[in-house]
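DM from R.C. (forwarded with permission)

"hey, sorry to bug you on a friday — could you get me a structure for this? deadline for the figure draft is monday and I only need the backbone to look sensible"
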Amino acid sequence: MVSARLGIVDLSELPRLGFKGRGTLPAMQKRGIVVENKPNRAFRQAGGALCMVLAASEIVLLGALDANEDAFAPLENGWRIEDGERTYPMPRRHSHAWFAVQGDGAPAMLAKLCAVDLRPHRFEDLAIAQTSVARLSSIVLRADIAQRLTYHVLADSASSAYMLSCLTDSAGEFGGSVTDAGSLVS
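My reply, with the result:
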């Protein structure tokens, strides 16, 4: 059995927001978002949020663990087509479920569900894989928390119960289980 500290946390209640379009990266930089043109890479933000660059024209923002539900409201509400920035908001809160898998056994557990090699020496901190997890199109981000190996898995919210069931089943083989968000920072 691998580490009993393996845990799964449903973070779907936290804010998420995407932007898409040719002018997305400059528009986000103008608004103070730390981001570079490095697809499949994430960038930590002040306050604990994450900015995932999925393509040169698409980003997804993930709220900090202590973020209120309106954390990205100024970004979303401040967008105006008249500004001509060649970007537009893509609400992700209702389209993508968000789970965190944390612990030393996470790579082995995820290997049962995903063909991408997510071991730490192959998949570095802040790396992103747009892949299939449990046969669902998913985004996997490694973004360690408090120096603990942490993977964020985003998938279609309509299949969130199925994804959680698959993650829980796989984690059970490694002594892991569903836990609360407080365990991510301890």
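R.C.: lifesaver. Residues 7-12+94-185 form a domain with the Gyrase A; domain 2 fold (CATH 3.30.1360.120).
me: no worries. The chain is about 15% helix and 30% strand.
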